[in-house]
């Protein structure tokens, strides 16, 4: 049977509950769009449903704008939807939103190279987990959006790529559940490319030097934006101020809790702030060992003192 080729298809506001591998037999599309099919979950889309489009598909969009699909209350996607696009060499853009795609498994987009994919949008899916090497074989990716999810941890292999690139990757992590302890040392380094890292509206109180200094120093084109975070301008941020000539134009929206920019502060002001915090009882860590109660002004000093003999720690 001769393959029938179409430029695009839109499937919208239907009551379909699944897409199996027979629906589009011998039919191919350059652009495929699903919108507001609230009875359809990602788990009910067969991995071969677009197999006849593998040579020509350039855009794929699936979204249920405004709500999760009604049948998804107990139907969280395991991320297998990405297997449906293995070998799609012309795919340039993929957008999946408002599905319960809570996990991006290890190597989800790392099995077969997608050489043309430049834009990947996975917003508003309730994503909690990003597996290692999830985006590993996307050599020409330029825009990755993971905003409005529930991401809490970024490890050193989360954004690892197989091939280095000189292209700037825009990496959006707006409105997640990230804080200053969410980033493993080495996070972002394995991207092997300059980053435009957007961390808007999370819960970062400072930028850990051991994480972000090496990211910024790895490439002069890398920039970081922290708009909407409750930044505390204390001694933990001094590493940026000391080299303000180097970082001022590349770390954006650094507004302190008093409404002033970090760059308008002095080193003495940051040190003073740390001294005040260290004396504040609400920042004291108390522990009991061998029947003796002691206090420290940082959890690190508690661990240094107790080493492996921790009996009880509470704040």
From TrEMBL:
<dbReference type="Pfam" id="PF13855">
    <property type="entry name" value="LRR_8"/>
</dbReference>
<protein>
    <submittedName>
        <fullName>Leucine rich repeat containing protein 13-like protein</fullName>
    </submittedName>
</protein>
<dbReference type="InterPro" id="IPR003591">
    <property type="entry name" value="Leu-rich_rpt_typical-subtyp"/>
</dbReference>
<dbReference type="InterPro" id="IPR001611">
    <property type="entry name" value="Leu-rich_rpt"/>
</dbReference>
<keyword id="KW-0677">Repeat</keyword>
<dbReference type="InterPro" id="IPR032675">
    <property type="entry name" value="LRR_dom_sf"/>
</dbReference>
<keyword id="KW-0433">Leucine-rich repeat</keyword>
């Amino acid at each position: 049977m001769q393959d029938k080729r179409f430029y695009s298809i839109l499937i919208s506001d239907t009551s379909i509950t699944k897409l199996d591998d027979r629906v589009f037999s011998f039919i191919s599309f350059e652009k495929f769009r699903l919108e507001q099919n609230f009875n359809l979950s990602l788990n009910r889309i067969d991995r071969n449903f677009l197999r006849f489009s593998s040579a020509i598909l350039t855009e794929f969009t699936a979204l249920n704008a405004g709500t999760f699909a009604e049948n998804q209350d107990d139907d969280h996607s395991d991320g297998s939807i990405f297997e449906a696009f293995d070998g799609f060499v012309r795919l340039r853009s993929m957008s999946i939103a408002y599905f319960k795609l809570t996990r991006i498994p290890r190597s989800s987009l790392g099995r077969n190279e997608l050489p043309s994919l430049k834009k990947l949008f996975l917003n508003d899916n309730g994503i909690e987990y990003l597996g290692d090497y999830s985006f590993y074989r996307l050599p020409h990716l330029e825009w990755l959006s993971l905003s409005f999810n529930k991401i809490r941890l970024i490890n050193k292999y989360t954004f690892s790529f197989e091939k280095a690139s000189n292209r700037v990757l825009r990496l959006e992590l707006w409105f997640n559940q990230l804080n200053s302890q969410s980033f493993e040392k080495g996070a972002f380094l394995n991207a092997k490319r300059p980053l435009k890292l957007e961390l808007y509206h999370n819960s970062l109180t400072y930028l850990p030097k051991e994480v972000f200094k090496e990211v910024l120093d790895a490439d002069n084109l890398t920039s970081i934006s922290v708009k909407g975070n409750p930044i505390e301008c204390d001694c933990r941020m001094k590493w940026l101020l000391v080299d303000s000539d180097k970082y001022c134009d590349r770390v954006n929206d650094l507004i302190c809790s008093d409404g002033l920019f970090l760059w308008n502060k002095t080193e003495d002001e940051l040190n003073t702030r740390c001294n005040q915090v260290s004396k504040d009882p609400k920042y004291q860590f108390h522990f009991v060992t061998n029947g003796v109660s002691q206090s420290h002004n940082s959890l690190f000093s508690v661990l240094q003192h107790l080493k492996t003999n921790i009996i009880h720690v509470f704040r």
